[in-house]
Amino acid sequence: MQLFQLLVFHVMSQVAKVMPKDTFYFSILRNPVAMMESIFIYYKSIPAFHKTHSLDSFLDSSWRNYNSSAKNNHYAHNILAFDFGFDNNAAADTDDLEERASMAISAIERDFHLILISEYFDESMILLKHALCWSLEDVVSFKLNGRSEQTRHPLSPNTAEKIKRWNALDWRIYLHFNTTFWHKVHSLVGQEQIKREVSQLRERQAKLANSCLKDGGAVNPSQIKDAGLKPFQYGAAVIQGYNLNTHIDRQTKIKCQRLITPELQYTDRLYTQQFPELAAKHRQETRMVAPQRQRSDRTGTMEMAGAREAYHKQIMRRKFSNVNNQKSSTSALLTHKEANNETSML
Question: What are phi and psi of 114, to 5 degrees?
């Protein structure tokens, strides 16, 4: 249990080293039931899943299929706890499960000013707006990383209960912060005000979609014309994206492009703005290495997953390393207008 505490403290202390003392920390949680269905489709090729033909099959034999030391298997178990830096291998019948959950909740409440809920994204954006004194325009967004309906699978109540038991630590964390989320909504915004502002936000998003998007909404990747706007495809999921309207002025195009650019391309763009010389050097090095083809077999898929994760880690290592070297914590921060690009989970 002591190691459990030290790991979380280490993660946050490292972040605090490169961030200003008055930094506002917030995060967002997704219902572990819906997230498990998504993860099983997206990460079907990880060792924990690849031998099972269905989510129910995995859940019925989870501890036989799950090896916590296998690469990428952390996606299969208590991923919320893992992402916050906690030991994610607690089982539903673990003797100290309640103590672990209580400790995780206390640590998250200590380190984060606000925890939002993915299922109530618009309400979350309004709450964030009030917490940071932003305008409604600052929280207008388009959904990114959304799956096509053809790869979604409805879950039975029985399957949902099995997911809650398998992810018992995550479920307790989620229930707690779902409750505190609504308490904050009522105390900071108010029930009538939140309804009114959510309605206004959705109206602005619909108006912006009509202006920005050629097809009025998300389309399958095969229909996306600009390769720079195609989201990363992985697993059995079909990740949708957007096409820009062609007849829009330059200023509107820039705004629209920011809202629909996928996470990997957006991260690369930010890195290039913050560290142009290092970005140019990295591009030069990349040109010297022939790009690998994406293969449909399990080995190729796992390589793509590893490449994606390695890319993110590489960007973050470079970013924080340069921030430390330059003695400038503010260079690692995004302005709230640049951060206004939702990268929702699948």
Answer: -150, 135
Q: Identify which of 148, 168, 165, 147 has the alpha carbon closest to the alpha carbon of residue 157.
A: 165
At 26, which helix (H) or strand (E)? strand 26-29
For residue 84 the two structure tokens come to: 């916050």
Tokens of 25: 């920390």
Calpha distance 297→20 (Å, rounded): 45
* Residue among 135, 196, 183, 150 at smallest CA distance from 336: 135
| Contacts of residue 238, Cβ cutoff 8 Å, sequence gap at least 6 | 147, 148, 150, 151, 220, 221
Q: Is 43 exposed, middle or buried (0-12, 13-18, 19+ CB in 10 A)?
A: buried
Cα→Cα distances 45→298, 299, 307, 312, Å = 6, 9, 14, 20
Q: How far apart are CA 168 and CA 128, in angstroms?
A: 28
Residue 122: closest CA among 104, 105, 106, 142: 142
> What confidence tens digit (pLDDT) does each residue in 213-263 have?
998 899 999 999 999 999 999 888 899 999 999 999 999 999 999 999 999
**Beta-ladder partners of 244:** 213
Residue 169's nearest CA partner among 58, 107, 76, 89 is 89
Biggest distance spanned by C-alpha atoms of the chain: 62
Could you tell me the two tokens for 288?
């010297």
For 105, the 3-state DSSP assignment is helix
Per the listing, tokens 């109540």 go with: 157
How do residues 57-107 score in pLDDT, each as one tens digit? 999 999 888 999 999 999 999 999 999 989 999 889 989 999 999 999 999
Q: Give the per-residue pLDDT at 324.
A: 45
Of the candidates 66, 43, 67, the one whose C-alpha atom is nearest the C-alpha of residue 302 is 43
